[in-house]
Structures are given as C-alpha cells and as structure tokens.
Automatic annotation (TrEMBL):
Pathway: Metabolic intermediate biosynthesis; acetyl-CoA biosynthesis; acetyl-CoA from acetate: step 1/2. Gene3D superfamilies: 3.30.420.40. Keywords: ATP-binding, Cytoplasm, Kinase, Magnesium, Metal-binding, Nucleotide-binding, Transferase. GO terms for biological process: acetate metabolic process; acetyl-CoA biosynthetic process. Catalyzes the formation of acetyl phosphate from acetate and ATP. Can also catalyze the reverse reaction. This is Acetate kinase. It holds the Pfam family Acetate_kinase. It catalyses: acetate + ATP = acetyl phosphate + ADP. One of its GO terms (molecular function) is ATP binding. Mg(2+). Can also accept Mn(2+). The record marks 185, 246 as: Transition state stabilizer. Substrate binds at residue 96.
Amino acid sequence: MTATATRVLVLNSGSSSVKYQLLDMRDGARLAVGLVERIGEETSRLAHTPLATGGDKRETEGPIADHQAALKAVAAELSADGLGLDSPELAAIGHRVVHGGLKFTEPTVIDDAVLQEIERLVPVAPLHNPANLTGIRTARALRPDLPQVAVFDTAFHTTMPEYAARYAIDVETADAHRIRRYGFHGTSHAYVSRKTAELLGKDPSEVNVIVLHLGNGASASAVAGGRCVDTSMGLTPLEGLVMGTRSGDIDPAVTFHLKRVAGMSEDDVDVLLNKKSGLVGLCGDNDMREIRRRIDEGDERARLAFDIYIHRLKKYIGAYTAVLGRVDAVAFTAGVGENAAPVRAAALAGLEEMGLAVDADRNAVRSGEPRLISPEYARVAAAVVPTDEELEIAQQTYALVSA
Ligand code: ADP
C-alpha cells in the first residue's frame, strides 16, 4: 500500500446482485455508490452514482452474464470518473461475508486458506457464502496485488456465551454438524451499539444496549459493555423477529407438520418460511409504509400483521432487558427502525415500568443523525441510530491494511 492510498472499495455480493461503495478513509466520504442487479438475466441493470464529481446517477440496462462481467462493468464506471480499480489511491477492497462460523472473530485479510474456510462454511450459509466467494474471487482476479479483506456478519456475535449460543439439542449431533446460534447483521449491531454509546456521551465499555436492526431482515441484539451477549438470529437468519418475508421464531414441529400433513417438500417449507412468511405472509405486503397506509384505511389484515410484528419485538426487548440486567439504551436502526415512528412508539408503549418511554415530538423528527426519542425523565434512553454497514466495513478494512 502506498502512502497516498486512502480509498477502500466495499463490495456486497449477493446471488444475483453486487452493491458497492467507494470511500475515502481520510473523512469517510463516499466517492461513488452503485448496484448491479439481476446478474445472469437479460435485463441486468447497473446504477452508478459518481458522488465525487457531483455527477448524476447513470443507469444502464442489458445482459450482464455473471459476477465477473458485473465487476468489470463497475470497474469501467469507476474508471470513467477517474476512480478506477487500477488507481494507486485504492488501498484495499473490503468484502461483506455473511457467515464466518466460529473461526473468524475479526476482519481478515483474504488468502487461499481464508477462501477455503469460507467455502467450508457453505453448508451453514448455502444462500450467501457462495455469492460472497464469487465476489471475492472475481475481485482478486481483477486486482491480484491488492489486499482484500473479509468482514463477517457473524463476527460481532462470537462473544456470545455458550449458554446463549447453544441450542438445547443433543450435543454430539449439534457439534457434528456445527449447529449453533451464530447471529447475523453483526457489522450493523457493532456499529450501532458503538454510536449509541457515543450519543450518550459514554465509552462503549460503560453501556448496555439493546439494538433493534429492523430492515427487511430484522434482528435484535443484547450488547453489554461493547460485547454481544445474545442475538435473535441463529444458525441461519430465519430465527427471531418477524421480518419482511421470514417467520422468525416458530415451533420447529410446524415444519414436520407441513411435510407430514400438508405434503410439502423440504424446499417448499424453506421457501414458505424464508420468502412467504413474516409481514408478506401475514398481509401480502412487506413494506412498512404500505402496511401503515393500509392500517390508516382500516385494513384488518395489515393491522394484525403490524400487531404480531410489534408483539414479537416487545418480547425480545423484555427478554434482553432480563439478559442484560441493566439497560442504558434501546436503539432502533435500519429501514423500518430509522423511518417508521409508529413502530418505535408501539414497540415501547406500556414499558414505563421498565424505564422506557417515547416522546411523541422527538419520535416524529426525521433526520439522518443519531437522536434520542425518549423524554428527559426516562431511565432508559430510546434512540434512533442510523446504521452504516459500508462505512463500518470500510473502516475495519482500512484499519487492518494500514496497521
Ligand atoms: P434490507 O434488509 O433490505 O437492507 P432496509 O434496512 O433497507 O432493508 O429496510 C427496508 C425496509 O424499510 C422496507 O421494506 C420498508 O419496510 C422499510 N422502510 C423504508 N423506508 C421507510 C419509511 N419511510 N417508513 C417506513 N418504513 C420504511
């Protein structure tokens, strides 16, 4: 790395998409952001916004065959703005990797052994790790000399005590198949819990925070003095809160029933619980804006979906209050948590005995900044703390390669 290399490219590779951001680590500024979607289809789309030059968003449609073609197209867009992958100012590429198992507790510079280990985890993350691997291999082929760093969604949760991470099933069976609770969204939980401490004017080691990451996927975590002690997602991102399309917690016997009585296949059940459940299964919509609009029009199904979503959230707030013993703050983040004031108000309604309350005026403020929504008198702070997973990945990547 040269002394002038201060840029980090963050790549988030999904099965048919690549999201990217180029950041300048001197001030965390975004130089370019973009997305390639529907990779492998006739109607692939690349949307690129060159923030550094103040240029408009550029969109191109047309077939992009695979991840290699996608990254080449991204590289060409970046080059057009003088921000190409061959620039000496590029210090590293940071990759979001969903599953790091127990081995990866920290961001890790990628070499062949690391790739092998990520590959070894494919059976526990069959949807995500293969796509992440493709992104890494493609980026390495384009810039073999450049440090590439894997930042794992599971890493922040590796501090969970054994009694929180282990399922109460036969130990030999669990260990033979690496079945345990790993948790996800860790980059976000780490970033938001730290920012919440900052908002309270304290060091992360001094505060206990419940983080509610409510996006399309959703998870809660209990963070004690900067370390995760429990989280709602488990072996896979299916466990825990009600999500946009996932059921969250469910009696596992429902799956036997669906197979034995309803005649569904393994794959049918998988699709049902991951893609056709949660808010979308309950009322047909997974966008909270649409659900709120329907509720305002008196739609009963939307109301019930909302109530089920809130009920689950409350149960986790209660559970994590008990786990932490003392809670200093509850922080809402991600698409729903940052934008849906009615969700925040409903989730904390009636919890005054637990020291929680929401100030209606503060809750109604719209802002991209971390902010308190609790009244002055509340014993436990309630806050909205916008997440920034790309910045966190870039910072962790840069810290590693510039050390
Ligand atoms: P992902 O899990 O895909 O990263 P996000 O964190 O971007 O998701 O959250 C997406 C969700 O946020 C949407 O499905 C929608 O329910 C919700 N959302 C976004 N904007 C708003 C808004 N203004 N009001 C209410 N909900 C919103």
